[in-house]
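Anyone able to model this chain together with phosphoenolpyruvate?
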Amino acid sequence: MSTFWIGTGWKMNKTVAETRRYIADLKARLPDEAGADCALFIIPPFTALAAAREAIGAAPVLLGAQNMHWAEAGAYTGEISASMLEEFRIDLVELGHSERREYFGETDATINLKVKAALRHGLRPLVCVGDSAEERAAGASAAAVVRQVRLAFAGLTRAEIGRSLVAYEPVWAIGESGMPATPDEAGAVHVALHDALKELGAPSVPVLYGGSVNLENAAALAAEPAIDGLFVGRAAWSAEGLVSLVSRA
Ligand code: PEP
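re: yes, here you go
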């Protein structure tokens, strides 16, 4: 049985104290068999990474960061490098979330630089791609995200791409105003993403779905054969929420 991924990005939420409480609660609620066929991950803000690493201890919970810069060091005020993230022994780094693309000017080109830098440092990129409402209305969802994936991995070897994760996060589905993709709709886009990854020589890259995942729709989404995991925002911002989703998936 292949690993099913379930994780949550916290965006600009949770202080150090809240992070410690979340992880303590998560550890208390994790079933004994957690980690057997499910890879569980949390992505706190940078400021809580040290506390999160310490609080996780030996629990089967992977730790991620929400972003990084591609340069090794330098005059980039406010940015964080891969070496800085390595100090927290993070397991993955989220790159190209649609909020970063929309509010912070990230482009396919800068995401590609970040993916390369992450891999150089042995960090596993979680590359987020997503179609807009307009692209969806035009029937161009799969084409849009396949293009983003090709650009994110441009110039990388098969082996490098193979160390990555991809998250399909429709822009129209994430956050308060979003509505989830149906399992059929998400499944079809995932098939296209898997085909593109196969063409790039990396057929085993897991593709996660994210966008208004909740307790009602998690089981049906997880049952789609092309969906290898769930990347969750709001519904997993409590440890109870995350563990409940694990039990549904
Ligand atoms: C997200 O923003 O990446 C996300 C998946 O959010 P939500 O689950 O809250 O829609």
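Residues 4-248 form a domain with the TIM Barrel fold (CATH 3.20.20.70).
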